[in-house]
Amino acid sequence: MSVIAYGAARAGLRNSGALLNRNWIAMRRAWILILSGAVESLLFLFAFGFGVGALVGDITLPDGTAVSYTAYVAPAILANAAMMGVLAETSINVFAKFKWMKVYDGILNTPLRPFEVALGEVWWALIRGFTYIGAFVVVMGLFGLLDSWWALLAIPACVFIALAFAGIGLTLATLFRDWTDFDWMNAVVFTMFLFGGTFTPVESYPSLLQPVVYVMPLYHGIELVRGISLGQLGPMMLVHIAYLLALCLGGMWIAQRRLARALYK
Amino acid sequence: MPNVNEILVSAADLRKSYGEHEAVRGVDFEIRRGEAFGFLGANGAGKSTTMRMIGCVSQPTAGTLTVFGRDPHTEGAAIRARLGVVPQDNTLDGMLTVFENLVVYAGYFGIKKKAARERAAELLEFVQLTARAKDQVSDLSGGMQRRLAIARSLINDPELVILDEPTTGLDPQARHLVWERLFQLKHRGVSILLTTHYMDEAEQLCDRLVVMDEGRIIASGSPRELIDTHVTKEVVELRFGTAHTRELAALAQSLDGVGAQIEPLPDRILVYTDDADDTNAALDARDIRPTSVLARRATLEDVFLRLTGRALVEDEA
């Protein structure tokens, strides 16, 4: 049994790697698009962190520690960058490949299976997400926003955000019917960015709104990255990680089922 | 030497339904190694659906199907690894160049990079696209895209190549180029499975074929056998100026006996006969003067017409 499982895992890895290779070859002529995404997050950091931060000054955390507002906002914008890079790749690009370019229609005649296609897209989204995250962390460090070497753990913390939104994005790509559907996705994303705890602690919202925030995937990502960046560790981190992982697996499962149903008619 | 009698694909009472619609209504056939096997039929006859089931990308609703002796339901990926498929709409990767399309596709079959590049170069040579290797797919003509799709289907050195209407939509010159490449493949001993609604294509390429209509197989055999069994040796086509459906049906009555069978069509009357000269003499004797008379050998088109009462490509503009 374990031999079969090992064989399947190896084939899955090899096959999803073939899709990764495809995306790399297709995208290497369009690297400027990836770069522009990273720049966008940096602009947010400058505008909110340094612009607004200069006005706000310090902010007091629930445990009483005071940190500069820039140091408070930066991890949230990092979490946002992790989300945006991955979401753009999985939702819009996968949708384009699936419904518009019909790339998967060609692939379905090969030994690749839908879950391997989904896995390959997740790998690829992670790689793209990490070009954003890496650039962002370097800039955070250059501006002295990383308090300790422990803060480098923010990078692996972003993996969980990237995984969750890869799963969500893939599912959306298979659910969406046309480009206009992306408008409401962008609206939800922007709402999460504004109210998911990016700029103020969630505790400062009206108590009625707080449960809504707790459902937002980005909120869990922000809390995770911020906690690590500011050295505020706690058991809640495991809840955040579990929530994000569940979204990843659930999203991938739905996406590969919908791909299979659409392609294997 | 490959065993020429080895059965590659075997179907028994194979069926496929989409909701209420029954696309394939119980077909039986066997495809042997080394042969060129054709599915002939009008649009919507169930050819493509059958191809998709053989290609393990569509689940049969009922009946049994084995490909390379394996079950497509449980071993789909393993079967697909040994097949080459040219879908009706090519499904080339529009974000990649001609050469990249082949190399990336090789990757899906687990072929290593170096071998993939060598094989891709060879295949581009084979389909005469070497000069276009660096072009985007969208810059290719329809015929070139089809040839690239054929090259792509050969990347894994498949034991069976499935082509769904390989020359539909191509101009005559491009069709001949595709046929010529398919002949080459046949000579190399590659087993070929193709669907078509062109009679000349089926007659030229197929060793054996089945005629499908409304989800069923209505005849099978070699092109020659089908013609010998279902129609006479020759056909005389008669046109009577602008006379149309109803007038032609009336005229057909008066032709009784000039040939083995009379078939009035919307625009002309077909007379099936073993000797066109005898038929012409009989027409003269009855003082019947068509505006045009064309005597020709019977073709698969006539077989289809006799079997279904309909022309094959009548729905094409």
Q: What proportion of the residues of chain B form beta strands (DSSP E)?
A: 25-35%
> From the coordinates shown, what is the CATH architecture of the largest domain in chain B?
3-Layer(aba) Sandwich
Shape of chain A: elongated
The CATH topology name of the largest domain in chain B reads Rossmann fold
Determine the mean pLDDT of chain B.
90
Biggest interface pair, counts: A-B, 25 and 29 residues
Order of helices and strands of chain A: HHEEHHHHHHHH
* Individual helix count of chain A: 10
Shape of chain B: elongated
The percentage helix of chain A is over 70%
What are the low-pLDDT stretches of chain A, counting only 5+ consecutive residues below 50?
none
Could you give the order of strands across the largest sheet of chain A? 1-2
Task: Give the biggest sheet of chain B.
Answer: 6 strands, mixed
Overall pLDDT of chain A? 85
Q: What is the top-level CATH class of the largest domain in chain B?
A: Alpha Beta
Q: Supply the helix-strand structural class of chain B.
A: alpha/beta
Residue runs with pLDDT of under 50 for 5 or more positions of chain B: none
Rg for CA atoms of chain A: 19 Å
CATH superfamily of the largest domain in chain B: P-loop containing nucleotide triphosphate hydrolases
**N-to-C series of helices and strands of chain B:** EEEHEHEHHHEHEHEEHEHEEHEH
InterPro entries (chain B): AAA+_ATPase (IPR003593), ABC_transporter-like_ATP-bd (IPR003439), ABC_transporter-like_CS (IPR017871), ABC_transporter_ATP-binding (IPR050763), P-loop_NTPase (IPR027417)
Subcellular location (chain B): Cell membrane
Family (chain B): Belongs to the ABC transporter superfamily.
Pfam family, one (chain B): ABC_tran
